[in-house]
Amino acid sequence: MSTVIGYARVSTDDQDCTIQEAALRAAGCSIVRAEKKSGTTTDGRAELDTVLSFLRTGDTLMVTRIDRLARSVADLEKIVAQVKDKGAFLRATEQPIDTSSPAGIAFLQMLGVFAQFETAIRRERQMEGISKAKAAGVYKGRKPSVPVDEVRRLKAEGMKPAHIARQLGIGRGSVYRALETLG
Question: Would you name the residues annotated as active-site residues?
Answer without folding.
Answer: 11
